[in-house]
Amino acid sequence: MTSQKSILIVGCSTHGISSMLAQELAKRNHLVFIAVPDPSKVPQHTSTLPTVKVITLDPRTPASVAEGAKAVASATEEEHGARGLDVLINDAGLSQPLALLDAVMDAAKDVYEAKVTETLSMAGAFVDVLARKQGRILNLSSSGAFIAAPCMSPFRPALTTA
């Protein structure tokens, strides 16, 4: 039998892969933190599982990221005695399906910010709690990074960079 792991999932949409991943990990008795800007949007069937803890964290806001890191560090200490975080899963992001010539620069910047800058911010904020357990970082991406669809122009570079 494997020991309980502590896992942070950033981003957890109602029907996304992260929500299903959180449910499966919780069923295996792992301590799962779900970090989202609006906790009310986490599906109730996920947020009410006994080993799931929902924290408010907006990856676009440095103060929110710092508070989220403190909350996770504190919770892992309560649950495991300064054990730390085993895995950080970055799945926060957005898509702006626009053709390259129609792309609005602000929309392209938002996509890049979500998949690159915010991913780096999360890694930096959680490095100490990850280091306690020699934890891992998993950055989820999309097959959109490899599909040459005309409407994916602003989205593709951000996915391949992250």
Features:
single chain; 162 residues; alpha/beta; Rossmann fold; 5-stranded parallel β-sheet; 15% strand; globular
Structure summary:
The chain is 42% helix and 15% strand. With 162 residues, it is α/β, with parallel strands linked by helices.
Radius of gyration: 16 Å
Q: What portion of the residues fall into strands of 2 or more residues?
A: 5-15%
The helicity comes to 40-55%
Task: State the oligomer.
Answer: single chain
Average pLDDT works out at 81
> How do the helices and strands follow one another from N- to C-terminus?
EHEHEHEHEH
GO biological process, one term: phosphatidic acid biosynthetic process
Protein name: D-beta-hydroxybutyrate dehydrogenase-like protein
Pfam family, one: adh_short
Family: Belongs to the short-chain dehydrogenases/reductases (SDR) family.
